[in-house]
């Protein structure tokens, strides 16, 4: 069957990862810590990465802002302004219809292909990736083209290869809060200086290697998967979706990874532990992130201590579990 023209196309994984890696390079150069997400124009996640010590919650906020920019095809700052204009009832209705837009913050940017069509959105958030200037950062690094450049927007625009344009309102006012008056005759600044490849992200590199090992085994098995690597609290560290994988795969991988990390057992064990009717639902209501009691998630231990969870989703659950186990063995 021929595919009709005009359909929504998502950015491919390799290109999305390249944008995220540029963001991490710039973030490390500036001494920042946070997470970065790329969501396809369809609203499906493509990839997300958290820098070492990037802080819990940043990946979820970045993913939400990227979703808004990708699906609404505008900077999330513009969407935020629209929601403020239309009134509370309409804004709440938007969030109910679009639950992945639950954090409608500024800073997300649409990504366009050479024809100008939006194929994804990218955003950042985290412990120190924000629109506020850290007081201990070199001031010259926060100036781009002679203008104050807040950390979050600077990193995102650098990653996209775009000139800096602030997305969070008055950069001059935030500069004054951190540093005092902006110079009358400012230097061009070093905000746009090329960033070297990040060299101090061991957890991130490990998580990417684990995701790569999963994809290598999935490709050999002839299946398409999504991968989620989470920390021991269930917060994402690395998320990747192979091109063409089922859209549900992302949510399945997140659920089994969180189950394995939070409970420190393979994800399918939960079903046997909580057999009384309604108990699993009660458990899910207690936890800070969704969990899934199905094969595909495994705890990851270092020196006898669970430090992470690996989740694989997409194919039949038993296949996901086998791929996850093989990938973990390959890195042990």
Automatic annotation (TrEMBL):
Q: Which residues form the signal peptide?
A: none
What SUPFAM superfamilies does its record include?
Answer: GlcG-like
The protein's name is Heme-binding protein
Which classification does the entry list for the species? Answer: Bacteria, Bacillati, Actinomycetota, Actinomycetes, Propionibacteriales
């Amino acid at each position: 069957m021929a595919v009709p023209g005009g359909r929504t196309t998502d950015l491919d994984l390799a290109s999305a990862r390249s944008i995220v890696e540029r963001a991490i390079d710039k973030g490390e150069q500036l001494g920042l810590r946070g997470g970065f997400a790329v969501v396809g124009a369809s609203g499906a996640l493509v990839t997300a990465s958290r820098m070492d010590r990037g802080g819990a919650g940043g990946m979820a906020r970045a993913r939400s802002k990227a979703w808004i920019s990708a699906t609404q095809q505008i900077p999330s700052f513009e969407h935020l302004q629209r929601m403020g204009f239309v009134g509370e009832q309409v804004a709440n209705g938007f969030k109910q219809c679009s639950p992945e837009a639950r954090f409608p913050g500024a800073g997300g940017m649409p990504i366009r292909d050479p024809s100008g069509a939006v194929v994804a959105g990218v955003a950042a958030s985290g412990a120190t990736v924000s629109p506020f200037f850290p007081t201990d950062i070199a001031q010259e690094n926060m100036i781009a083209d002679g203008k104050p450049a807040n950390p979050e927007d600077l990193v995102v625009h650098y990653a996209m290869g775009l000139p800096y344009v602030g997305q969070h309102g008055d950069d001059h006012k935030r500069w004054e809060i951190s540093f005092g008056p902006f110079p009358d005759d400012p230097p061009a600044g070093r905000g746009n200086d090329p960033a070297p490849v990040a060299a101090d992200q061991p957890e991130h590199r490990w998580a990417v290697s684990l995701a790569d090992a999963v994809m290598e085994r999935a490709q050999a098995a002839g299946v398409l998967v999504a991968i989620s690597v989470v920390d021991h609290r269930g917060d994402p560290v690395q998320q990747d979706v192979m091109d063409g994988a089922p859209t549900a795969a992302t949510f399945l991988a997140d659920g089994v990874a969180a189950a394995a990390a939070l409970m420190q057992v393979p994800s399918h064990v939960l079903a046997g532990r909580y057999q009384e009717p309604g108990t699993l639902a009660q458990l899910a209501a207690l936890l800070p992130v969704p969990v899934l009691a199905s094969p595909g998630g495994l705890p990851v231990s270092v020196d006898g201590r669970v430090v992470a969870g690996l989740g694989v989703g997409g194919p039949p659950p038993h296949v996901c579990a086998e791929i996850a186990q093989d990938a973990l063995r390959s890195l042990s």
